[in-house]
Amino acid sequence: MKQIVAVVEKNRLLARDTYEMTLSGDFCAVTTPGQFVDVKLDGYFLRRPISVCDCRDGRLVLIYKVVGSGTETMSRMNTGEKLDLLTGLGNGFDTAPSGNEPLLIGGGAGVPPLYWLARRLTEEGKNPRVILGFRTSDDVFYEKEFRALAVPVTVATENGSYGVKGFVTDAMTAVSYSYYYACGPMPMFRAVHDTARTEGQMSFEERMGCGFGACMGCSCRTLTGSKRLCKDGPVLLSKEVLWQTQE
Amino acid sequence: MADTRVSLSGWTLDNPVIPASGTFGYGLEFAELYDIDCLGTFSFKGTTLEPRFGNPTPRIAECPAGMLNSVGLQNPGVESVIAETLPALKKVFHKKVIANVSGFSVDEYAAVCARLDREEQVGLLEVNVSCPNVRHGGMSFGTTPEAAAEVTRAVKAVTRKPVYIKLSPNVTDIVAVAVACEKAGADGLSLINTLLGMRIDLRRRRPVIANTMGGLSGRAIFPVALRMVYQVYEAVDLPVMGMGGVASAEDVLEMMLAGATAVQIGAANLTDPYVCRDVVRDLPAVMEKYGVTNLTDMIGGAHHGQRRHHSL
Q1: Is residue B67 part of a domain?
Q2: CB–CB contact A215 B23 (8 Å)
Q3: Residue B210 covered by a domain
Q4: B16-25, pLDDT tens digit by residue?
Q5: In whole angstroms, what is the distance from residue B71 CA to residue B56 CA?
Q6: Which residues, listed in sequence order, are joined to residue A6 by a DSSP beta bridge?
Q7: pLDDT tens digits for range A83-112
Q8: Does the beta-carbon distance from B62 to A45 stay under 8 Å?
């Protein structure tokens, strides 16, 4: 973990209530897709944990959804403004067990960390495939960016207003894969777990106090004991999640 | 040359800065960030007899100038702390630590304290009778003078280490509880624990915290904490560890002027992980600014001799 001050290079609306912020700074602690940063915002006590969408060449990309007044404040930040960050938090995805054709499954605000993961897997010579799920066409983002990595992309919307109609799990049945990585809301995780034909990893979200393992605010029961999602996660193995204890 | 040393029941600390229980784990995460030997000491995570997972999540909520938590005393249990955590701590922290103890019965408090009494790494016992986040325990022992006194007596009977009772602000008269603890033999007092509060999610129309309510901490509670330390200092003849919303060296001085011998920093550790290191660093300059040579001279300085029972 490293505390830094980064500078906003760009902050743009990407889709409905969804923003992409590009930051410059010293991101040496950010090493693994699936890690997150904890953002200090003026006027708010707690930091806001946001997963890293991409990190390269001294630039960090965060995609965040405006869900409350904190993220609303963030969406109004301009180029040149400074942001206090705790960086390099969380364990991130382990690409070792991916096999040659891993499937990446993202739902809504869970899509961003899969972008860097797709890039990392591609660089490792693997052939990832991506399924992105959104509510409607107004919510879709990053299809083009994934395609630019030469990764096959399926977009699913719940009302069929863009891509295929249905949930990510409907699209999962049509493809073959060696392993999976998922990030999205809890009902999606449950459906993915029930549908998947392989093991996989999932990146969870929770309200956090500190973000670095001190406060026990984001604890999660697993088959391998209690885990702090901020420090021992946010990525857990699907087979260690105690589904009956999840809301 | 500023002298930042203070003494708690015969234990001299290099400075009065103490990360508060529940915000610093068992020190190991922070030892990765800075040399925690710079601290006066720290109070470790509230420890019970058995391992506890704690409350369901969400356990955390944002508040104006503060936060709510309802962790619910998650901890690995006293045996695991002694067998695994304290040996790991010994490698990165070379001072004695404050053992924060909680329980669900008088016997449990006594059992955990008796177990920790044998640990040379433990400098004093801070007995938490004020956790607002568990039923049938925690705060229920701190909300009446009689129950707090009963826990104090039971713990004092099983240990020779100094016993500090951590008091709840969620009472009509904190002074009455403080006086009862003093009469029951407490060596000192810690105050305040968090204030019971809640938030409601407008979209879901449900409490944000899964357990409905949680404890408020952070900047918002500093004036309340200061007032209670001030009142308790006047009423008892015991050293007080003051806490609640402290986040700067200036806050430390203010809390000491109200009557604190040492000062704990809690929620600020979560949002600014280096805050305690920085407060220790800033303390000599702030002392110089306000003309303070010996920090102990500040204790109770705002009372102008009004402490009724004090015999320094």
Answers
A1: no
A2: yes
A3: no
A4: 999 999 999 9
A5: 8
A6: A83
A7: 999 999 999 999 999 999 999 999 999 999
A8: yes
